[in-house]
Structure formats: C-alpha cells, structure tokens
Amino acid sequence: MRFESLLRVMGTLVYGFIGWELGVAIAQTATLTMNSARYILPATLLGAVLGYFFAPWLVIAPANAARNALRAVPIADLIAGTFGLAVGLFIAALVSFPIAQLPPPFGSILPFIVLIIVGYLGTTVAVLRQEDLLNFFHLGQDDGKITHHQAEAHYHAAQNGVVPVTRPQLLLDTSVIIDGRIADIAATGFIPGELVVPRFVLNELQYIADSSDALRRNRGRRGLEILDRLQNCDEITIQFIDQDPQDAQQVDDKLISLGLATGAAILTNDYNLNRVASLQGVAVLNINELANAVKAVLLPGEELPLQIIQEGKESGQGVGFLDDGTMVVVENGRRYLNQEVLVQVTKVLQTNAGRLIFATPD
After folding, report:
1. Phi and psi at residue 344, in whole multiples of 5°?
2. SS3 255
3. For the chain, what is the largest distance between any 2 Cα atoms, rounded to a whole number of angstroms?
4. Is residue 342 part of a domain?
5. Domain of residue 300, CATH code
6. Domain membership of residue 63 as a residue range
7. Assigned domain for 152 exists
8. What is the DSSP letter of 30?
C-alpha cells in the first residue's frame, strides 16, 4: 500500500472518530436512535470525508517542510537541540506534577504551558551554549588527553627528535571543484593539508547539477565526479562538514566567514573571492597562481622548438604555445605557419593573465 493511501485510510478513521464524538456531544447520547442519528451519522460522515481528502495535505506538506528545514541545520545544533529538549521535558515533568494539584482550571492548563516554555528554553540554551556545555563535560576540548593514534604519533616523533605538525584545513569552493585540476594536484601529494567541503558548497554543486541548462548541469556533474575522485584518492584526506555560518547568505561570504572562524585557508581559482578573502585576512591558495608558478622558466637567448599554429596580431607575427599553455609570439614567424621551427627567446613578460614570451626564428 502506498504511503499516501495509508495516510488517507488513517485520516478517514481518525477524523471519522472525531466526527462521531462531536455528534455524540451534540446529541448528548451515544445510543443510536432516530433522533440522535440525525447528528451522529452526518458528523461522522463529514469527519471521515475531511480526513480522507485533507490527511495527506496535513501530514505530507508539514513533513516535507520539516525535512527541508532539518537539512539546513548543522548536525551539532541538531544534537544539542535534541539533548536540550529532552532535559527541558524532564524538568517540565517534575515541575508539572505539583502544579497539576492546583484547583481548576489552573491544574489542567498550567502544566501544558510549563511544558512548552521549559522545553523551548532547554532547546534554545543547549543550541546557543553548546560549546560551553561541551567544555563543561570535557567533550569540546581534549583537556590534555590524546587518542591512541595521537599517542603513537607523539611517541615516534619523540624517538626521532621531532614534533608532529598538525595539517592545516583547506576549504574548497565551488569553482575549484568544478575546475577539476585539484584532483590531479591531490594525486601528486602536493596538497599541504586536509581538504574540507562545507555542506553549503555541496548543496550549490547539487543545485548546479540539477539545472535545466545543459552547460551548467554538466559543470555541476563534473564537480560531483571530482569530489568522488578526491574521496578515492589515497594521497589526501577529505571531509564534509555541516558548519553553516548564519551571518552570511552567499556561498563566497559563508566561506570567508568560516575561514575567519576556524582559521582554515580557502582553496579557489576565483579571482574575486581571492581578493575579498585576502582583504579580510583569510589565507587563500589560488590554483591559477600555482599553475603560473610551475610553468617552465625561459630566459632571453634560450632556444626551443615551436609549432607555429596561427597568425599574430601584428604583421608577420606567428603564434605558438608551449606544453603548459604559455603563448609564444614569434616575430617574422608567419611564413612558418603550420610548421615546427627552432626559435630563440627575446623577451619574457609576466602579466595578470599569465606569462607571455616573445621570440624570433633562429
């Protein structure tokens, strides 16, 4: 039986029963007679019909809304809120017992009010002061205790006369994941720390992958494939976190806020995010800057073979590219179009867009 059909059956029974009780209250008798049936049967039938049609809407819509709201709540807040609610309800149960002894109507109304207020206060206090509570119970700090693996690491370090270094955390933004080069860099073992993907970045990737635009959809799916490659890469460690700064709305702003709060660096290839994060004191590792830094260094006077593949902007110029994508402008190289020729470097320029090399045929 489908879930919606089950809800309709349950709604019909529950609301039919409510209608029956309402009819009994109006007729002032539970015995079916010609007189009481005029009230009981229509009320029961009306309740059953309302339950059949409105039960799925009354249950499914709130359930979906609650599920979407819970997905946006960090797991730490969810656990703290659940713990606070349990403690609040326990305290409310203790307090409500003597209050229930008060004369009517206070004895029947006040316990319910106390239950709501104390439960809400318990949840709110636990969420807002979760770090203090964890520290109080020695769960938020290690208070000098270390795990077995940490103890083993410290032991080997002491034997070798070195101090273990904690690996920094690197926050991945959406653009660097979609770019894909981070997976190749990680495979080389040059990543200096632990890769961290916040939940809001993963949600943005999923949103892009579900886009109706084919290009955006392919970019989003590529990003998810890159994350899968990173998870299966033995050279690095990657984790997904639920921390979601509430003081920012945009993904870039959330990354900067998270970097400021945790001291983690941001790994990106977004020029604007790079500038804004740097201005706010957040460390940034830019993949594009890394790519420019590892390009081969050529000095004036050096010779290299080059395939001339197109004409340059100026008269007589030819253009070729090195293996790393660096553009080489060859003076008087137009006549060697679609040929490989030995050229001599005359000048090297470093621009914001990358390195530009000028050469002449040897």
Report:
1. -115, 130
2. helix
3. 115
4. yes
5. 2.40.50.140
6. 3-130
7. no
8. S
| Distance (Å, whole) CA 195 – CA 268 | 12
Per DSSP (E only), the strands in 34-93 are: none
Question: Has residue 72 been placed in a domain?
Answer: yes
For residue 28, the SS3 value is coil
Q: Beta strand 354-361 with 340-351: parallel, antiparallel or unpaired?
A: antiparallel
Contact 119, 150 (CB under 8 A): no
Q: What is the pLDDT of residue 319?
A: 92
Q: Is the pLDDT of residue 273 over 50?
A: yes
pTM of the model: 0.47
**Distance of CA 225 to CAs 222, 228, 230, 231, 266, Å?**
5, 5, 9, 10, 21
Q: Tokens 């979407």 identify what position?
A: 68
Same-domain check for residues 286 and 348: no
Tell me how far apart the alpha carbons of residues 298 and 282 are, in angstroms, rounded to a whole number. Answer: 33
Q: How many residues does the chain have?
A: 362
- Please tell me the distance from the alpha carbon of residue 40 to that of residue 30, in angstroms, as a whole number: 8
Rounded (10°) angle between helices 271-279 and 251-262: 40
